[in-house]
Structures are given as structure tokens and as C-alpha cells.
Amino acid sequence: MGKLISKEVSNLDNMIRGYIARDHDFRNMFNMTQFYVMMFLIKNFDKDICQKDIEAETNLKKASITGVIDSLAEKGFVERTVAEDDRRKNYIKLTRKAFRFKDMIENNVREVDEIMTKGVSKKELENFFTVIDKIRKNIEDRD
User: Fold this and answer.
1) Domain tally for the chain?
2) Is residue 31 part of a domain?
3) What dihedral angle (degrees, nearest 10) is formed by the CA atoms of 40, 41, 47, 52?
């Protein structure tokens, strides 16, 4: 049997997580899911982000995201604000404390992407994203 896509994707994810945790001491600050949520919130800090947006971005279920947000809130990195137009909706905003780590997180993400794409052409990256999008859609269509 040849290479399995699922195994290769899992291995790559583990390598990325290991690199981020090893070279930057986020291990004591965030777990990797929290780190990815923080990246998303930093990237979209100027928008009204609610839990459903985070669920869509991470492909995690509501209960999982609730736990991540609760944990980040307990650590003082995010806060919830109730939407004025719909009391059932909470917006998730970064706190001042979180913004102190903004540059460090952004630099880390940029560094990891630079390492991963070294020697990869623009065309190869376009092909990679085309294939990844097709794989993602195949999985989504099975749900």
C-alpha cells in the first residue's frame, strides 16, 4: 500500500504543532487549538466574530469551541460580549492582554509558513491548495 493521505496530513499537523511548541514556549500559554483560535481572532480583530465563525474556521463542534473560549477567557485572553440585536449571540473579542502576544503569534505563523514553503514554487502552492480544497469538500460532502 502506498502513502495514505490521512496519515501524511496527521504527521504534518504533528510536525507543525511540535515546531510551534518547541521553538516558542506557547505550551505554557495555549494548547494548539487555543493557539489556532487566537490566530483566527488576531487575523480578524477588527470584525465581529461569534462562536459560529470560530466553529466554521476550525471545523470543531460547538462544545469543543465553547471549552476553548472558556479556557481563553479564564486566562484573560478573550472576553464575550452579548450582541445587542440577538441576546443569544456572543461576540468573542481579544483582550488587551492578548494583544501583547499579537506580534509574537503573527511572527510565529509567518515563520512556520516560510519554513514549510521553502523551495516550493507558486504553482506548486496553487496546486497544493487546489487539492486540499477538493479533499476538504469531499469530507464535508460526506457529513
Assistant:
1) 1
2) yes
3) 70
CATH number at residue 85: 1.10.10.10
Three-state secondary structure of 65-101: HHHHHHHHHHCCCEEEEECCCCCCCEEEEECHHHHCC
Q: Which domain holds residue 92?
A: 5-102
Task: Say if 30 falls within a structural domain.
Answer: yes
Residues 4-43: tens digit of each pLDDT: 998 998 888 888 877 777 655 666 677 778 888 998 999 9
Task: Return left, alpha or beta for 119; rule: phi > 0 is left, psi -120 to 50 is alpha, else beta.
Answer: left
In whole angstroms, give the CA distance from residue 49 to residue 94: 10
**Beta-carbon neighbour count of residue 94 at 10 Å?**
19
User: What is this structure's pTM?
Assistant: 0.75
